[in-house]
Amino acid sequence: MRFSPRTVGLLAAFVTVAIWTAFILIARASAQRSLAPLDIAWLRVLGASMVLVPWGWWLVRRRNAGAGARAALPSSLAGVSPLPLHLTLQLGLFGGVVYCLLAYSGFFYAPATHASVLMPGSLPLWTTLLAVFLLRERITRLRATGLALIVLGDLLVGGTSLLTALDGGDVWRGDLLFMGASVCWACYSVLARRCGADAVQATIAITAFALVTYVPVYALLVGLGLLSSQLAQALWSEIAFQMLFQGVGSVVISGITFTHMVQYFGPVRSTMITALVPGLSAIGAVWLLQEPLHWNLVAGLLLVTVGIFFGVLGVRPPHPQSAASHCSTPWRH
Questions:
Q1: Rounded CA gap, 44 and 38, in Å?
Q2: Are 296 and 157 in contact, with CB atoms under 8 Å apart?
Q3: Looking at the chain, which runs of residues are DSSP E strands?
Q4: Model pTM?
Q5: What angle, rounded to 10 degrees, do the helices at 37-67 and 99-106 form?
Q6: Are 160 and 289 in contact (CB under 8 A)?
Q7: Which of 58, 166, 183, 281 could make an S-S bridge to 116, C-beta 3.0–4.6 Å?
Q8: Which domain holds residue 164?
């Protein structure tokens, strides 16, 4: 049975929003169980690698076979990453390793309601600022208004935590980690856009990079006793669940559905759809995790959500010359 493009687009949007929302709730719930944040990041990479590494290996060989007598198209990491080495390193560092470490560590200090505002909520702010410097984009008045609302919302949430830092609380640490994770993902997004990176190939590249760097280094440090791990004490069911959801679900499935959503709705309307994530995850945190919802969180969430909509409405139409022209290596096919 074949589905219409509209049905595929709607299903893709639903799955993307559901997984992004569940990621925040499950990551916070996992922080209250046995695994350490670095353990969860390690399992995320392993879970995603089970699918994406064979996919990357097959993709590179199919692409090179299609090139025929021409020179093989650029790839790296022993032919697993379909991107050149310099792109794999850049995208993998920001979108793979550092993002995971900051995000999962943040959930061990701050509640999911804070993550809802400071990670997906502030992403348009950091993405826009980086795009201005790296892609020479111009900000419209409407978009500037949206960014100002996002800043105010972030200050209401994160600023309150910083004010209580002297009282001995640790929530501010998580807020700073969430902001750092959002900055890292913005760097990944802008770098991928600068070179016109295909979403699937970029996802394979960052996973392959994390597999050959973070996975062995973390295992070595744990084996030497320099880092503590809770993997040996965790239940196999919890380990399997983290690999499936954090790796296969959050990385593979949501990456594919997000690509389909953008293909059908376009980038602007897709951003408006994903603006539902902060509100849904905050409501889910209050309902499922019994987290308190103070007035500053409600106000910050409303400001950030409205700011996202203003920012999307203020996006200028793309220039005829694609940002992919900045890329010096024609690795796309």
A1: 10
A2: yes
A3: none
A4: 0.85
A5: 150
A6: no
A7: 281
A8: 5-317
The pair phi, psi for residue 112, each rounded to 5°, is -65, -30
Mean pLDDT by 10 residues, the chain (333 residues): 79 92 93 90 96 93 71 79 93 93 94 89 84 81 85 82 69 92 90 82 93 96 92 92 95 88 75 83 90 84 84 59 39 34
Q: What is the DSSP string of 40-51?
A: HHHHHHHHHHHH
N-terminal to C-terminal alpha carbon distance within the chain: 29
Maximum alpha-carbon separation in the chain:
68
CB atoms within 10 A of CB 62: 11
Dist CA 106 CA 164 (whole Å): 17
| Cα–Cα separations (whole angstroms), residue 115 to 192, 235, 297 | 24, 26, 11
What whole-number distance in Å separates Cα of residue 124 and Cα of residue 147?
A: 8
Tell me the pLDDT tens digit for each residue of 163-209.
Answer: 666 566 788 899 999 999 999 998 988 888 888 878 889 899 999 99
Written as six digits, the tokens of 116 are: 């809802």
Number of structural domains (the chain) is 1
What tokens were used for 8? Answer: 């595929």
Say if 330 falls within a structural domain: no
> For residue 252, what are the CA distances in angstroms to 1, 20, 236, 249, 259?
24, 12, 22, 6, 11
Nearest CA to 116 out of 188, 47, 17 is that of 17
In a domain, 324, yes or no: no
Using CA atoms, how far apart are residues 175 and 171, in angstroms rounded to an integer?
Answer: 6
DSSP states of 147-160: HHHHHHHHIIIIIH
Q: Is 331 part of a structural domain of the chain?
A: no
CA distances from 149 to 50, 109, 172, 181, 274 (A): 41, 25, 21, 20, 17
